[in-house]
Amino acid sequence: MRRKKAVKLEWEEAPQIKQDIxxxxxxxxxxxxxxxxxxxxxxxxxxSRSYARIWSFPKIFQHALxxxxxxxxxxxxxxxxxxxxxxxxxxxxxxxLHIPKNFSGSLLPHRNSQGKHLEKTARELFQExxxxxx
Length: 134
Prior knowledge:
The chain is of the alpha+beta class. The chain is built from 5 helices and 4 strands; from the N terminus they run βαββαβααα. Helices cover 39% and strands 16% of the residues. The chain has a 4-stranded mixed β-sheet with strand order 1-2-4-3.
């Protein structure tokens, strides 16, 4: 049996993604997300099949290192870069919705306690974004 050759996982800062995040947060008026605590990266070589993901900085590390909560939004170039512009923005909104209003460093699940799925909220917010930017 032949093993698959391991692909090296690489990241690079993604200033265009950060600009998109800034524009989304500003346009949608999401005041609880401090922009200086959001970091954006594009990755290459991941075996994940997602378009993007968000990484949190756990409370224990925040406390131990005396660092404020932070989040990293990673777009997986292999899939994200093939999306049309509207779908890219919707994906970024989806990732932002994982951030709780108290900006604690934790992540919200895809389905909230009322059973509403995060993707539905992302679609609604994207429509609001489009309306405000036309």
